[in-house]
Amino acid sequence: MVRVRFAPSPTGHLHIGGARTALFNWLFARHHNGIFILRIEDTDRSRSTEEYIESIIEALKWLGLNWDEGPFRQTDRIEIYKAYAHKLLEEGKAYRCYCTPEELEDRRQKAMKEGKPPRYDRRCREIKEYLNKPFAIRFKMPLEGETVVNDLVKGPVTFKNSEIEDLVILRSDGTPTYNFCVVVDDYEMRITHVIRGEDHLNNTPKQIHIYHALGINPPEFAHIPMILGKDRTRLSKRHGATSVLAYRDEGYLADAVVNFLARLGWSHGDQEIFTREELIKYFNLDQVGKANAVFDSEKLLWLNSEYMKLTSEEKLFELVKPFLIKEGYIKKDETVDLKWICKAIRSLKERCRTLLELAHAMRYYFLEYVEIDPKAKEKYINSETMPILKEVTEKLSQLQDFTQDKIEKIFMDIVNERGLKLGQIAQPVRVAITGNTVSPGIYEVLEIVGKEKTLKRLRRLLDAS
């Protein structure tokens, strides 16, 4: 059975790169009816925090990447790593290193000045007797030959063993190191495939040698390409790549973000929009490209707008509701007429690219009065349009059925009687009711705003003139 894991270090919020790694693992597991495991690699105690752990879990839940086992925390497994490290020490596959941090740093600096690689010089490798002073445990790397990583994405990648350092697997304070914990955890959790970013590729030969020393067959490895900005530099905040939860707070839909992440380095023909079921059905590592993926914030925005169009009004209301509450348009426990709110959302959803935009656009459906844009007011609210607005107000006030067709008839009667163009009536009314010059069809807007608020806004404007 396929068993994969997502293993973030909680030293920050979940960002785009980590989210894509989680997604690729999740899709691979679901495609093969396998197991997706969440493991928190929190052994860096100086930088790992509970806040970040909670944030990562919240982001994964928002994206809908449900895990089957975990979350496991490495800090709960320290004794397990120690046991494996001492096993290698007893078998002569690791050794005690008595070098102090200061000595190691001095040698590193000296090597760099001499133009040499700043690797550990293995001076403690042949010390047989036990010295009564603090020590770390280092792994004995082979000194000759090559290690070939048969990567499922990149193909065979060869490393010279002589260039791989004897890495510390257990520090002098008894804490294990990343490369060692990963091997032990992946073995104990029966991981079959390690799918991770290609920035981990250089760690892979080290881990393979530890697997072999423990008498374990390594899992298969797949290193997925990096994500770059449109300027082909490493992804950073200036490219819009904030944390995953920031996209949620900006009004992106989880399904749109998942679709976008899936297409960063993976493709299925020319298809751009996928349901989750399609992603699970089609996803495989053969279609993950070798080239770096490019993060395009405009494409994400376009994709989000497409998902908003495809989402039902009922579902969109549930999604936009927190934004409406935050804006103060509705109260948290307020009962809203679902039929009415769906009509309001239907009028706007094709015009809005995010839930935040939708919430802002809906303001004139909720507010008693609206602020009118000064430029729009100057252009459309004047001595020429005031008589028209007065006539519209009088005729709308007489309507029993405040519906689009009845409203349209009033407008068209005025058009014909006064010899005007429709825009000469519609635009002043639109500005009076919405505060701006752009909105859905004016008859639709008036019906949704409703008779009471429509007349209040028009009369207020007329009284102020």
Automatic annotation (TrEMBL):
Binds 1 zinc ion per subunit. It is found in: Cytoplasm. A motif ('KMSKS' region) lies at residues 234-238. Its cofactor is Zn(2+). InterPro entries: aa-tRNA-synth_I_cd-bd, aa-tRNA-synth_I_codon-bd_sub2, aa-tRNA-synth_I_CS, aa_tRNA-synth_I_cd-bd_sf, Glu-tRNA-ligase_bac/mito, Glu-tRNA-synth_I_codon-bd_sub1, Glu/Gln-tRNA-synth, Glu/Gln-tRNA-synth_Ib_cat-dom. GO terms for cellular component: cytosol. CDD domains: GluRS_core. It catalyses: tRNA(Glu) + L-glutamate + ATP = L-glutamyl-tRNA(Glu) + AMP + diphosphate. Its EC number is 6.1.1.17. Its main location: cytoplasm. PROSITE patterns: AA_TRNA_LIGASE_I. GO terms for molecular function: ATP binding; glutamate-tRNA ligase activity; tRNA binding; zinc ion binding. Keywords: Aminoacyl-tRNA synthetase, ATP-binding, Cytoplasm, Ligase, Metal-binding, Nucleotide-binding, Protein biosynthesis, Zinc. Residues 1-302 form the Glutamyl/glutaminyl-tRNA synthetase class Ib catalytic domain. Residues 315-461 form the Aminoacyl-tRNA synthetase class I anticodon-binding domain. Zn(2+) binds at residues 97, 99, 124, 126. GO terms for biological process: glutamyl-tRNA aminoacylation. It is an enzyme of class 6 (ligase). Monomer. Catalyzes the attachment of glutamate to tRNA(Glu) in a two-step reaction: glutamate is first activated by ATP to form Glu-AMP and then transferred to the acceptor end of tRNA(Glu). Belongs to the class-I aminoacyl-tRNA synthetase family. Glutamate--tRNA ligase type 1 subfamily. This is Glutamate--tRNA ligase.
